[in-house]
Design goal:
Layout (H helix, E strand, L loop, with lengths): L1 E2 L4 E2 L1 H7 L36 H12 L7 H8 L13 H24 L33 H8 L18 E2 L2 E2 L13 E6 L5 E11 L14 E3 L12 E6 L11 E3 L6 E10 L1 H4 L9 E3 L1
Parallel strand pairs: 8-9
Antiparallel strand pairs: 1-2, 3-10, 4-10, 5-8, 5-11, 6-7, 6-10
Helix pairs in contact: 4-5
């Protein structure tokens, strides 16, 4: 992404992507045709996983398609216990289909409830005086805590995200990325798309590359389907600033008066959401907490 005239400029990234070719290691590079990249801009796409028995048939397709090494033997054993085995028919009985449907409907609710309850050890909190949480709860990119695999934290993460990487958890000044997010406002109440909130960012967010603020639907991590192209803003835009250089980002179902388009994120009435602050190339002020984002404040 490049810096345009007050807006992000995707042209450099598109040019780079169009030079990409993906092919098996044993193929002759000269025989590989150029890849085609359809323009998905301004297209609404449903990327949500199914919450009916189509979930299991898609999982079976994945198991059949991917190599054995993509899934470890222990997890393959769990899949085999419900009839999903690579290269073998998946034919659950009527009773098994009922149980599988109940599982795929119940599991997301259990994960969401766990995420909303938080952790007794407080490892998920970034600050003592803020609502912001950290997705990895001080674990590695593979969710390893000091002595155990944090499966509950991992489940909560993948309910609203699709990938993890070492750069997302590394603690290097000016490198990697940080993702403080919040489900709650300053009073501890869950964020409700019917309300108006202000997120105040002190001057000079500590991001060597860029920063971004985005809203997501709480239950599944999809984006609110509103009139806005994206429920997000970032430092590539000419974001309006206060006299002291600080920034106010507004979340509401309708744009408040005198709020710039670049500082407004539209929400859906009656639907809970979460807000994420991304800092790419997080700098020392983030780590020593001399710079902290304010909690979202409900505005009447």
């Amino acid at each position: 992404m490049g810096q345009g005239d007050g807006v992000p400029d995707p042209a450099p990234a598109v040019e780079q992507a169009e030079q990409t070719r993906i092919y098996p290691l044993w193929a002759q590079e000269k025989d590989i045709p150029a890849m085609e990249f359809p323009n998905a801009s301004n297209q609404r796409v449903n990327m949500m996983y199914p919450i009916d028995n189509a979930f299991w048939t898609k999982l079976k397709d994945f198991v059949d398609y991917e190599p054995l090494t993509a899934i470890d033997p222990e997890l393959r054993g769990v899949l085999a216990s419900i009839g999903i085995v690579k290269g073998q028919p998946f034919e659950p009985s009527e009773r098994q289909q009922e149980l599988l449907l109940k599982a795929v409907e119940t599991a997301p609710k259990m994960i969401l409830a766990s995420k909303q309850l938080g952790r007794a050890d407080g490892r998920n909190l970034y600050y003592d005086d803020r609502q912001y949480e950290r997705a990895w709860a001080a674990a590695t990119a593979e969710w390893m805590q000091e002595t155990y695999l944090d499966i509950d934290q991992r489940a909560g993460f993948f309910q609203y995200a699709y990938s993890s990487a070492p750069a997302m958890v590394q603690r290097s000044i000016g490198a990697g990325s940080k993702y403080p997010y919040t489900l709650r406002d300053a009073d501890g109440n869950f964020l409700d798309g019917s309300n108006t909130y202000r997120m105040h960012l002190p001057a000079n967010p500590p991001a060597a590359l860029f920063w971004a603020v985005t809203a997501y639907n709480l239950t599944d991590g999809t984006m609110p389907e509103t009139e806005q192209l994206l429920p997000s803003t970032n430092s590539y835009y000419d974001v309006a600033k206060n006299e002291d250089g600080s920034i106010d980002i507004w979340f509401a179902p309708e744009q408040p008066e005198d709020v710039a388009d670049t500082n407004f994120i539209q929400t859906i009435p009656g639907r809970n959401f979460m807000a994420i602050l991304r800092l790419y190339g997080a700098e020392i002020e983030f780590y020593d907490q001399s710079w902290k984002p304010d909690d979202l404040v409900k505005v009447e």
